[in-house]
Automatic annotation (TrEMBL):
CDD domains: E_set_Cellulase_N
Keywords: Carbohydrate metabolism, Polysaccharide degradation, Signal
Stored Pfam families: CelD_N, Glyco_hydro_9
GO biological process: polysaccharide catabolic process
Occurrences of domain Cellulase Ig-like (ranges): 260-342
Glycoside hydrolase family domain sequence ranges: 354-760
Annotated source species: Sphingomonas pseudosanguinis
Record protein name field: Glycosyl hydrolase
Protein family per UniProt: Belongs to the glycosyl hydrolase 9 (cellulase E) family.
Length: 828
């Protein structure tokens, strides 16, 4: 994090500048945004999700002084919409007939409501005008209105004026609520024609004036913790043209320039490795030509060590980048970087800089995500034993709101709604929600096996007692944590196989209110098996009448079977010494699951509808075949099959290359030779891809930030390096660990909570309602808000696409971190 020099002077200067704010006219850009220095208005460059609906990244959005402060500017059918409330379908965007005007067409097809929104630059702001295709019918009275959501953390503790009436934005949602049982909030303020948000703050002040109808201000957190402050104008019955007209005036500080961001690895550097910081600067401002490395002495003084010119890395997205190379500095110590009148937080140069960058991910984060057990860390109870009433059979022909799909065939001996015994063991809750996603559970098991085999992972900080359903963090029990977590994952994977004879899609809450549960996983259900003969609140023995048991989505899909086969085959190696019976059972199941899929073409898909492309069964087949090959120490059956899969390996080398390389010791020289052109082609493709940005890693531009992609890139490239050092170097792996530990766009926080000097300490985990974090979890990281705005919110946990920990991403990080540690040993 950057510390301001002369903070008081700069603050005073900022306030003075606000008094001389200049009317800066917005202009339409080639990307069809409205822009001026210090202000961007995005107009539906990002759309509502067809699966997750309202992700707080859609409609009209405002980026003011470098922060996205407003989103979801659109006609809505709720005063304070929750995530799965109706959202408009985006139909198209065009240039308007007026100068600097953008027109968006949208519709709610279910209620026959179509409209266009015209966004036009005017004066020192912009006008929003809503035209309906048809007069608003009486059936939508009190429902339809134009909403614009404002980020709560940008306004906590600040004031507003509704006309001249003052109010305060509350830190915690405290109502008022309607007394009619609807659960709807009452406006914080209503009835005015003008509202000014944060009149005291020149950086976040926005004034909205309404021509048609009064304004309302709501705190949507009263309905859901992830809600924003909502400014709204209801649409009157019969209104059509100019149904809503707003004049929006964001205060833009004259000649505002975003401060530079100096990004680096927050865990520091080992003495012999490359050390390059990246500097992100606003094109409107100065970019000093030099940076300085300073060493911090015991008395707090800063001793200049290296002053050097920075090297341009060009423009990427909306910012300019330069590199500061201090690789020549090898002396251990505590350092910081001075640039443009600012000094970064400290970091270390030390031989042991990376000795503790992955352990917390294993002993705390993955432990906290364990299902069907209670988790304690000294005085803190993370969770009581959870979901002991798992699970009920999901119904046929059902699409779940979180993306799970069940077709007409259940692939299960159980009837819809029937209790399925045997599933309430092992497994990991996937993310900030509490479901078990089978492919991700398989990935965790495989990653931890690889970590043991490739890097040791000899670490014991957690005790696991499966019989007692008890886990204690910071209580070593003499057993490697990785082995215990592998066993915990295998318990769930084997349970599925024993019950159904195949892997399933996963297990998840049936109702939205239950799914939105925040806090202790152990209280999400009553842990009592549902009995239809009991009343809703009745309990008897180990049963109850509450239909809160999670649903099992049981579709038999080849991709899932092969992912599980690979995980079980790998686990059989890791468990051979500590639990030979389970190891044998896992291997037997892996062989059966694998053998079923070796005849004819195999269907893609994993039973979820939340990805852009189907889960590759062919790729999973490569992984499973390799794991069985390794376990069998080169059995001809698996070696021959792997040769037959060479076209798949060649086509999908970016995804299966790591597995293909692990097979080399068990295959002949011809196999290795066949991989050489694939490795060269992969290098060329990766070099072209990463050459488009200054960070040296692949950066996702989709609707979910890409730290998982980065860490898999880092670990895969290291395996390629070990197998083909003449082709692949270690820079790829070190760039990947630098990225996730701080050297990325937007800010310089480590994306792994509590790892490094400054890290992401507000995350989208089970404790997100407390604005907390889970130690060792890896967040998705920097999202590119289209068209060109890199974003990573530091203080608002509820943007899952930037902040949601996932268990498979974190296990992938453990591999990448250990690969980086090994890479640094080559640079001593």
């Amino acid at each position: 994090m950057l510390k301001r020099i002369g903070f008081t002077l700069l603050t005073s200067a900022s306030l003075l500048a606000s008094a001389h704010a200049l009317a800066q006219t917005l202009a339409v850009t080639p990307a069809e945004t409205l822009e001026t220095q210090g202000l961007t208005v995005m107009v539906d460059q990002n759309q509502f999700s067809p699966i997750f609906f309202d992700e707080k990244n859609a409609g009209i959005q405002i980026v003011l002084h470098g922060e996205r402060i407003a989103t979801d500017g659109a006609v809505r059918l709720n005063r304070t919409p929750e995530q799965w409330d109706p959202v408009p379908a985006f139909l198209g965007r065009t240039r308007g007939t007026e100068a600097n005007q953008i027109v968006v067409r949208s519709a709610y097809k279910d209620v026959d409501l179509a409209y266009k929104v015209k966004v036009t630059a005017e004066g020192d702001g912009f006008r929003i005008a809503v035209d309906l295709d048809q007069p608003l019918p009486a059936s939508l009275a009190g429902k339809a209105g134009f909403n614009l959501d404002f980020l709560p953390t940008s306004y906590f503790g600040k004031t507003y004026l509704m006309d001249a009436a003052p109010g305060l934005f509350p830190r915690h949602a405290t109502g008022p609520m309607a007394k009619d049982g609807s659960g709807d909030p009452i406006p914080l303020a209503a009835g005015g024609k003008s509202i000014t948000l944060a009149p005291e703050d020149p950086l976040t002040r926005v004034t909205i004036t309404s021509d048609a109808g009064a304004l309302e201000l709501y705190d949507a957190r009263n309905r859901a913790q992830n809600g924003w402050f909502v400014v709204r104008s209801p649409i009157a019955v019969g209104a059509k043209d100019n149904a809503v007209v707003w004049h929006v005036r964001p205060n833009v500080v004259k000649n505002w320039v975003r401060p530079p961001v100096v990004s680096f690895n927050q865990a520091g550097y080992t003495p012999g490795r490359s050390k390059v910081a990246l500097i992100e600067t606003d094109p409107h401002g100065p970019a000093p030509a030099e940076a300085e490395l300073v060493k911090l002495a015991a008395d707090g003084t800063r001793q200049p060590v290296l002053r050097a010119a920075v090297t341009s890395r060009g423009r990427w997205m909306r910012y300019n980048y330069a590199a500061f190379d201090f690789s020549s500095v090898r002396e251990p110590g505590v350092y910081a970087i001075a640039y443009g009148g600012q000094v970064t937080n400290p970091f270390r140069i030390a031989a042991d800089a990376y000795d503790r960058i992955w352990q917390t991910s294993l002993d705390t984060f993955i432990a906290e995500q364990m299902d069907h057990v209670g988790i304690r860390e000294q005085y803190r109870v993370w969770s009581a034993p959870s979901h002991l009433d798992d699970a009920r059979q999901a119904p046929p022909n059902h699409v779940h709101f979180d993306g799970y799909k069940m077709g007409p065939n259940l692939d299960s001996p159980f009837k819809p709604g029937e209790h399925i015994p045997g599933l309430n063991v092992g497994g990991f809750q996937d993310a900030g929600d509490y479901d078990i996603q089978t492919p991700q559970n398989a990935a965790v098991v495989r990653d931890l096996v690889w970590g043991r085999e490739l890097y040791g992972l000899d670490w014991d900080e957690t005790s696991v007692d499966e019989a007692a359903r008890a886990v204690e963090i910071r209580k070593p029990d003499g057993k490697p944590d990785a082995v215990q977590q592998i066993r915990h994952g295998v318990l769930q994977l084997l349970a599925q196989y024993k019950v159904f004879g195949h892997a399933i899609v996963g297990i998840i809450d049936p109702a939205q209110r239950q799914y939105a549960h925040l806090g202790d996983a152990g209280s999400q259900t009553d842990n009592l098996t549902y009995d239809a003969a009991l009343g809703t609140t009745e309990r008897k023995g180990g049963s109850s009448g509450a239909q809160d048991d999670r649903w099992a989505f049981t579709t038999d899909l080849p991709a899932n079977n092969l992912a599980v086969a690979g995980a079980l085959a790998a686990a059989s190696r890791a468990l051979a010494d500590s639990d030979p019976a389970m190891a044998a059972e896992a291997l037997d199941a892996a062989k059966v699951l694998w053998a079923r899929q070796q005849k004819g073409k195999i269907k893609a898909g994993d039973g979820r509808d939340d990805s852009g492309s189907p889960w590759s069964a062919d790729g999973a087949n490569v992984g499973a075949t390799v794991e069985l090959l390794i376990t069998s120490k080169g059995d001809k059956l698996y070696a021959d099959r792997l040769r037959g899969l060479m076209p798949v390996i060649a086509k999908s080398f970016a995804w299966v290359g790591a597995s293909a390389i692990r097979a080399i010791p068990y295959m002949d020289a011809q196999y290795r030779a066949a991989l050489v052109p694939m490795v060269r082609a992969a290098k060329a493709k990766r070099d072209a891809e990463i050459g488009k940005n200054p960070f040296g890693v692949p950066i996702s531009e989709g609707n979910w930030a890409g730290s998982h992609q980065v860490v898999e890139f880092g670990s895969t490239m290291y395996l390629m390096h070990k197998a083909f050092p003449e082709i692949i170097g270690t820079d790829y792996t070190l760039n990947a660990i630098d990225y996730v530990l701080g050297r990325h766009p937007a800010n310089n926080l480590s994306l792994v909570s509590t790892v490094g000097t400054a890290s992401k300490l507000i995350g989208y985990g089970h404790n997100r309602a407390d604005y907390g974090f889970i130690p060792g979890g890896l967040v998705p990281g920097v999202l590119i808000v289209k068209p060109d705005f890199p974003e990573l919110k530091t203080d608002w946990p509820f943007l899952w696409f930037e902040n949601e920990y996932t268990v498979a991403t974190t296990s992938a990080y453990i591999l990448a971190a250990n690969a980086a540690i090994e890479a640094t040993k080559e640079d001593r």
